[in-house]
Amino acid sequence: MSTPKLIATSLLTACLLAACGGESYDSLMASAKTSIGKGDSKTAIIQLKNALQKSPESGEARFMLGKAFLDVGDSRSAEVELGKAIALKFAADQVVPLMARAQVANEAFKALIEQQGNTKLGDPKSQADLLTSLAIAFESTGASDKAHAAIAEALQLQPEYPPTQTLQVRMKARDGDFTGALQMIDSLLQRDPKLAEVWRLKGDILMVNRRVEGAQALAAAASAGVAGASSAPEAGSALTGTAKTAVDAYREAIKLQPGDAAAHTGLLNFWLDNGDLPAATEQLAALKKVLPSHPQTVYFEALLSFRQRDFNRARELSQQLLKQAPENPLALQLAGAVEFELKGYVQAEEHLGKALKLAPNLGIARRMLTQVYLLTGRPARAVAVISPLLQNGNVVDAQLFSLAGEAYRQNGDDKKAAAFFAQAAKLNPGDMRSRTQLALGKAGTASPEEVLAELKTISDADPSTVADVALIRAHLQRRDLDKALSAIEVLERKQPNKPMAHNLRGLVYLARRDVPAARKSLEQALKVDATFYPAAALLASLDLNDKQPAAAKKRFEALLVAQPDNVNAQLALAELHEQAGGTKAEVEAMITKAITTKPNAPAARVALIDFQLKSQNLKAALSAAEQGVAALPESPELMEAQGRARALAGEYQQALESFNALARAQPRSPLPSLRLAEVYVALKKYPTAIGHLKRALELAPDNLVVQRRLGEVQLSNGEVKEALATAAALQKRAPGSPLGYSLEGDVQAQQKAWAPAAAAMRRSLDKAPDSTIASKLHYVLSAAGNKAEADKHTADWIKAHPDDAEFLFYIGGVELTQGQLQAAEARFAAVQKLQPENPAVLNNLAWLGMKLNKPGALALAEKAVQLAPKQAPFLDTLSSVLEAENKLPRAIEVQTQALELQPQNHELRLRLAKLYLKSGDKRLAAAELNRLATVGKQYGNQAEVQQLLRGL
Questions:
Q1: Angle between helices 720-733 and 704-716 (to 10 degrees)
Q2: Which of 261, 352, 581, 685 is positioned for an S-S bond with 336, CB 3.0–4.6 A?
Q3: How far apart are CA 943 and CA 193, in angstroms?
Q4: With 80 as the cut, is the pLDDT of residue 398 above it?
Q5: What is the DSSP string of 76-124?
Q6: How far apart, in whole angstroms, are the C-alpha atoms of residue 474 and residue 882?
Q7: Residue 299 phi, psi (nearest 5)
């Protein structure tokens, strides 16, 4: 239907219902007054709208329509119509008090004060009514003195005016004088039992008083040591005492004024607080009948859908509600809760954060935002958000303490975390999550056996699986595999239809090196849940170990059929495609698709940054990092990835900015300090780097890698004594670790103290075999002149570790530099058998083949470049082999590519000049030689450059 036709139809309908219906303006007004007299405000609204079609400038009709809207709870429409009545100069004594009431209902307090703050009406009752509304506005804007003055003036004009006395009641209740407030209410209702607002107020005060008394009883029970003290909900069919009186008061208010949204709200809140969803549903139906589109109706329909776990319907309604009331804190809190349940954490954070800005005391919003920050890896923000709830010394909320404990645990403050978990467990011994975390927190003080025993006790008493998973992991860490399997059986009995137990059993079998049994368990996990990524990933890794990449690929493809938006599976496929020889463009497109699938998932964006860094495409990596941080500015993972990209690109100041931002986001994590230290090392600001490493150790004193790195940087700064002290401290803290001894060996080797260096490295190898340390020991022995001992070490190591490709490659390199070309070739050939796709090995074999005049050198060089196309040294080797085979044009082309990758590499430029000379192109040769000549002393081989220039 076109718009003009629709408008015409509407006008025709209006004509049929009004002007063409035969009723006059006076007749419609009379009918409206009759309807209002009968309490039928809805019919009156229709009649008054029709009357206004006849006479749109009627101030009386506007006034009556505004009053009718107010009667049915539509305060916004009432404010509009009453405003028009004021503009039409309708009697101020009648319209201004109602306008003030509408503005109070709409919380337009400042507008009311500005417009009517100095108004003086002729009728004392009307003035008292206006003053009462102004008192509410003054009180709501913090002007309590003016509020009390307005009340006093209103009572002087009308000593027993119910609206003013009702406001007095509210203020008494606000100050905690519930007894006095209820006495005043009873007095008011004795004089006039038809005061709907007073009945509703009675319900409100009784409900508040009931909650206060319940909280006081809970606090008293908690302080007396009564565990798990709580007040049970009252069922709708068995209401007694205060609850029954309150419900009856609300019902009386609704009976007198069916459109009293606040009274409906009181009942709905009561039924929902007590978990009586059928009663809440019945009450909502009554509210919808009288106020079908009122914001409160939409709010409670959304809230009820939320409680019934119909989150999609709740989202639809909450979005509708926010269009009506975009600044309403409760509406924002509900919208945030809905998004939280639907895992829309970015939107949840936005709604909840806005709600707290508008109403900082919203406890539910504060708790939920805390959970959002924990789930998105921002524990420091979680601690900041939850802290205001913990500042009240009278808090006796086990769930709050448990959440606080988790926030502090994730933020690295184990001491505070343990204190909160202890409080939660004391208040509610049935809170097994807190008891489990408390038990795990004792790991530093209690014996492992005591911790395990406590976890077992919790597991036996708790139908949930929190303690079971912790117990299984503890057994796995201790490599007590039989006990781990026993604990997994308990977990499986508790969760027979979930994949976790099968997956953990698979891990145990892998630890036992029983791959067939592990595969069987992991396959079972996927039968139970085809979307369970951990099992698919483990099976894929087993497939890759068995040289079955196609099978690994099918694992993730099957998972994506069941769950198309699984980012982890998409990224795994991208990695497999890269390993299978996919082009960079193809791999990048696959990662980008994962980002598109879930733009708010940091993992995909970090994967793209890492891929570009690995591809040495620094510009693209920086761009991806910038886009990632712009999309998710509070993601620690992206801050860290951006910092790494900037550091690798040489943008050290910008890298420091990223890592400092990371430090602010994760103040209890050692990672930011470690990353900052590496940047300062690159800047050769070793003292500053040492300071950051010490800070990292303060946060993670058991982190052996950080401690070793501290020793390395101390050594770089010439702090030999300090480095040796760090090595000694590391040996003392972790006597079974090789790191302290390898650090000592490095320090001694730098001082050319070969004997103590060799001794330290041998002790390191005794703790754990390590290719790098084995290579360093060979270097130390050789440097000390102990060739026989170095050769014996080489033979012994290769005999014990025949598949150690790294050590074989190192020895091949040593033999190559010593001119033992055939021996070196044999070493590299052995490495090639172990790593046939290693481009560095192929490159070395190509160069040796060329030197030894063996066939196949060109094929090896080309394969090396194919595997690593942007490595200048490999291109240089390929060029040399091409030159040896007299393929000069291609040799020049390849050497030019190498120089483009490393334009500051003077040796590459000299080789290109020589190739030009050999091909007879003296002009291009001269150009390259002159470039080298201008470098001067920066290039140490200027004598050869000058000799070649003279020969041109």
A1: 170
A2: 352
A3: 114
A4: no
A5: HHHHHHHHHHHHTT--HHHHHHHHHHHHHHTT-HHHHHHHHTT---SSH
A6: 59
A7: -60, -50
Read off the pLDDT of residues 829-841 as tens digits, 9 standing for 90 and up: 999 999 998 999 9
Q: Give the amino acid at 397.
A: D
Backbone angles phi, psi at 763, to 5 degrees: -65, -35
- pLDDT tens per residue, range 569-591: 999 999 998 888 788 899 999 99
CB 741 within 8 A of CB 705: no
Nearest CA to 378 among 631, 658, 632? 632
Work out the average pLDDT over 760-775: 93
pLDDT at 457: 56
What domains, with CATH codes, occur in the chain?
25-206 (1.25.40.10)
- Per-residue pLDDT, averaged over 728-750, amounts to 92
Q: CB of 519 within 8 A of CB of 535?
A: no
Long-range Cβ contact pairs of 307-314 (< 8 A, separation 24 or more): 307/272, 307/277, 307/280, 308/277, 309/341, 311/338, 311/341, 311/342, 312/342, 314/338
Residues 6+ apart with CB under 8 A from 19: 53, 54
Tokens read off for 885: 């085979």
What are 541's two structure tokens? 């890794």
Spatial separation of the C-alpha atoms in residues 129 and 115, rounded to whole Å: 15
Residue with more model confidence, 488 or 302: 302
- Tell me the C-alpha distance between 259 and 786, whole Å: 100
pLDDT of residue 227: 41
The two structure tokens encoding residue 151: 């009340």
Residue where the block lists tokens 């303006």: 25
